[in-house]
Amino acid sequence: MKSIRLLSIALLSMAACDGGEVVQRGDAGRDARVDASSADVWIDATTAADAATDEGMVASMDAAIDSGTPADVSCSLPPPVARPPAALPSRLSVVETLAAERPDWLLGSCPSQGGDRRFLFEVLRRLRDTDPRWGLDRRTGSLSDDIITYFYGDGCPEGSRESYMVDIIGRLCPRPGIDPPSVPTWIDRSGEGPVCTLMGYAPGSMPDASVPRDVVSPPADTGVSTLPLPNGRPVVEAVARERPELLRNSCVETGGNNEFLFEVVRRLRRMDPRWGLNWKRGRVGDMSQDVVDYYRGPGAPVEGSTDVYIIDMIGGHCGDSPSAAWTDVTEATAMGGTIGRWTLAGRSDL
Fold it and tell me: Fewer CB within 10 Å, N side or C side of the chain?
């Protein structure tokens, strides 16, 4: 059965680059010309046959063929921006920009925890808008959930190991309530033997990244205005009195933890779910250790929203004598040219 599938794949994929067109040869030797510029998936006859020895890859290729996905055998690619031993130029700004726009996609990027690959696919789509050499990785047979590749070789990319490999999601699949949340990264892992692919990549099936999910809009005629800031000082002071050891040990930089912060947010959210944590200066993954946010926008709190009040609730943090505080730094933050960003940091215990 496998030999039949291999032959089928090889015959369907066999092609040769011929200028702007591709000549495909079927089992009867007839030539059929197709436009290579419209292709979305790379397939090379040799690499397709080699890769088909992997059962997972056979299934992926069968699915692609059955769905009518065109084979990108147009191996006419722009010159690579780098080849080993030179380092691949960083595109971290692309990853960070998407993380800031869609933190929910980043935090929900672990398929084994019920997430999906929208963040991975959208990063790839933006990279391929400027260079079609970018791709995904299948070195283990199945698609890597946090890896992109860059093909630097000649010929067709699909199945090639002549690629850089970059990890773009730090701490993929964190344990809820235990590990810090996922963060955007740019870590070169090329030495681990990437296998370049576009199998499984379906950019047309993804929702528009500019349209946020789970946003609850107010009725058009309500005239919603910004909510006033509630006073949470009594809660901070109560936690400081009851758990002074948590306050003293609230500086992560000196070996402490964020348990004081989490307990304050936990109690505030019992009264109002608009309370949350803060991504410092809006940078997803960099959580403030002494700040809470209050979502003041319409509807339910929205992960990643910048429509927040920003409250410093530990005076003298990381100093010799930290104390309970309640200082509204929203205006000062804006005047400093930066922002706060509401989050629960992937925690289910707040």
Answer: N
